[in-house]
Amino acid sequence: MQGSTAFAADPNRFVFAAVRTVRSEKTDHTVTGYKTLLPEFIRVEGMTAINVPADKNAWMCGLMTSNDMHKNTVGSRVKKRADGTNADVVLRDIRSVVNNPVSDGSSNNTVAMAGTASWWTAEYLNSDYSWIPRIVMDNCAPAMIDITGSLAVVDIRGGCVARLQNGNTQSRVRINGADIQLIPDTSGNTAFDSANSVAIGSTWLNPASAAVYSGTLRGAANENRGDASNAPNIPSSVFI
């Protein structure tokens, strides 16, 4: 359970997590020589919930890490590839049950790699053995992504994007052939880091719960099925 200590107290924030890093930080490698190594390949396929009350949500999380990933600069067995990654994560057909399309801004993510980029050190950024995943999300709905705590490359194929929190220019997010329908937080705010993402051949829908998205969108050949009043700052050039 993420962000809550009692299910009865806040059932809308109940999260099923398939893979969670129990220990991600390095043991003092310079003194002991020991390493905390993370997987080179993770795959989660076919995850959902049943018997969810009609007024509640059940959120699915494929990958959850701690907020100190930057401390482990020797977490991968293999060197970085040309794209800057050295691990692969495949999340396929992960389907949350969303009966009430409102989500707390810091919880309920399909990819939960939260943190703060200002904590990152030059050693983390430059080490060939920092664990940097390439994450493929295939037909995940809603796809809620928070990669503020770790470098990553994210490819979203199909499904529906509902939240994207990135905030650093070195991580890349590509959206191909997906719907984009943002889910607001309890204050009505949406989160979509358009500056560090690109959408191609996707469909823009009005944000859920009558929310308004004040940001923009980068990309080309997208379809607009939303109203200008709900996303007034998206340029027409990104749509066909």
Describe the structure.
- The protein has 240 residues and is mainly beta.
- It has one domain (11-238).
- The protein has helices spanning 29-32, 122-126; strands at 15-20, 41-47, 57-64, 87-94, 97-98, 111-112, 133-138, 143-146, 153-157, 160-165, 172-176, 179-180, 197-200, 203-204, 219-220, 223-224.
- Strands 1, 3, 5, 6, 8, 10, 12, 14 and 16 form a nine-stranded mixed beta sheet that branches.
- The longest helix has 5 residues, at 122-126.
- The termini are far apart.
- The relative contact order is 0.13.
- Tally of contiguous helical segments: 2
Low-confidence stretches: 1-9
Strand content: 25-35%
Alpha carbon gap, first and last residue: 41 Å
Largest sheet: 9 strands, mixed
- C-alpha-based Rg, rounded: 18 Å
Keywords:
9-stranded mixed beta sheet, globular, 240 residues, mainly beta, single chain
What's the short version?
This protein is mainly beta and 240 residues long.
